[in-house]
Amino acid sequence: MKRKLTAAIGIAGMMISIAACGGSDDGDSAKGADAKELTVWLTVDAQNNWPTLVKAADKAVQKKHPGIRIKHEYYGWPDKNTKLDAVLATDKVPDVVEMGNTEMLGYMVKGAFAPVEAGKFDNSGAWLDGLKASVTYEGKTYGVPYYAGGRVANWRKDVAASVGVKTPPKTYKELTAALDKIQKKEGGKFSAWYQPTRDWYAAMSFVYDAGGSIAKEDGGTWKGSLSSPESLKGLTEFKKVVDSYMHGDKTKDESDRYIVYGQGKSAMIFGAAWEGATSADPKNDKTGKLKDNLENFVMPGPSGKNMPVFLGGSDLAIPVKSKAQGVAAEWINAFTGKDGQKGLIAKGNLPNNKTDLATLKDDPATAVPATAAESNWFVPMAPGWGQVEKAQVLQKMLQNIGTGKKSVEAAAKEADAAIDKVINTK
């Protein structure tokens, strides 16, 4: 499903009054258990694609609380947080709000959301690691995973077949061997693998595959770890990919990758699961050949295992100022619980838990994204991570590496220094 997560949190200075707004440290699941009104904020994804699931959750809550009024507001991703930041400083907050999982941390650090008891929500014991991490801060849970979105490799079957490759690669060695043949046949103006240099989601997959990380915590203090031997190994392999197969603009990010892919000047991408299909849309396919020629496959990693992928998705949280926290928790469980997950899966989403994810591996239509999502990573849950993203530390490092402006070692060391300056700052 096409959906772009807001990666940069950028909420410094927001919600001045949140810290003084009350709410116990341990959360109060009974608070607002008898509320007569409930306001739910979701993105337009729910409004457009699964409105019946919203109605089903409403009915479940209304059955238990006769007469309760449930109001829904829907927002586009670019607009939601601006509106949310404004109302969180007032007493007129929504009771449930949808957040992109990379957006959660900044709000948890600021004390915007009420803690919840994870055990009261269906499938909480099997939540996907990346989603569980996104709702956890300093040992407490501040939200409930809603659904997930993974990343996969996608290539053109016709281009692969032109060099004698008829099946997707199972190993990294098979992948690079096929790409070498494609690159040699198509020439220097063609990108056997269109891999934008500033795409830190892909680059960090190489880092985590090599056993590295963006940052590590030691004794309550976070430090950048991109210059560790393991991280350098991953970054070096990423640079090799960019040098060998990426012959487009090496200062670009991934935002228009699906458009570039649709122009027919590349044979493969590694990105969000929706990107291949979107490239094949007649509006984007300038070749007229992509509709039946694109194939998703699980990205193999240089380590010999499946490449760990960034796990995107959405969470649902309860603002700490909500006067209906108890009912809000019930609505969230009705919406994201066992029946809700079945409905979300039917609409093409990945579930929020490993149990349901495992069942998708048996269906050819969902096996690739489900298998890819099993191995995943998430951003450091450090108080100043939002400032790291806002400063585009990783993107700048990768551009310096990809363009050759700096060596891998020098760029990584510089990035670690930039991370260390802000990552522990609330």
Explain what you see.
- It is a single chain.
- With 426 residues, this protein is an alpha/beta fold.
- The chain has two domains: 18-149 and 312-377, D-Maltodextrin-Binding Protein, domain 2, CATH 3.40.190.10; 151-309 and 391-422, Periplasmic binding protein-like II (D-Maltodextrin-Binding Protein, domain 2), CATH 3.40.190.10.
- It has 18 helices and 14 strands.
- It has helices at residues 44-49, 51-64, 77-88, 104-109, 129-134, 157-161, 172-186, 200-209, 229-245, 257-262, 275-279, 325-336, 338-346, 354-360, 367-373, 385-390, 393-402, 408-422; strands at 37-43, 69-75, 96-100, 136-137, 140-141, 144-149, 151-156, 215-218, 221-224, 268-272, 294-297, 309-310, 312-317, 376-377.
- Mean pLDDT is 91; it is low at 1-29.
Keywords:
39% helix, 2 domains, SBP, transport, D-Maltodextrin-Binding Protein, domain 2, Extracellular sugar-binding protein, alpha/beta, 426 residues, 15% strand
Compact summary:
With 426 residues, this protein is of the alpha/beta class. Helices cover 39% and strands 15% of the residues.
Fill in the CATH topology of the largest domain. Answer: D-Maltodextrin-Binding Protein, domain 2
- End-to-end distance: 34 Å
CATH architecture field of the largest domain: 3-Layer(aba) Sandwich
**Segments where pLDDT lies below 50 for 5+ residues?**
1-29
**Rg estimate, integer Å:** 22 Å
Proportion in β-strands: 5-15%
Q: What is the CATH top level name of the largest domain?
A: Alpha Beta
What class do helices, strands and sheet pairing give?
alpha/beta
The helix content is 25-40%
Supply the CATH superfamily name of the largest domain. Periplasmic binding protein-like II
How many extended strands?
14
- pLDDT averaged over residues: 91
Global geometry? globular
- Largest sheet data: 5 strands, mixed
The number of domains: 2
By DSSP (H or I, 4+ residues per run), the number of helices equals 18
| Strand ordering within the main sheet | 2-1-3-13-6
Keywords: Signal, Transport
Pfam families: SBP_bac_8
Protein name: Extracellular sugar-binding protein
GO molecular function: maltose binding
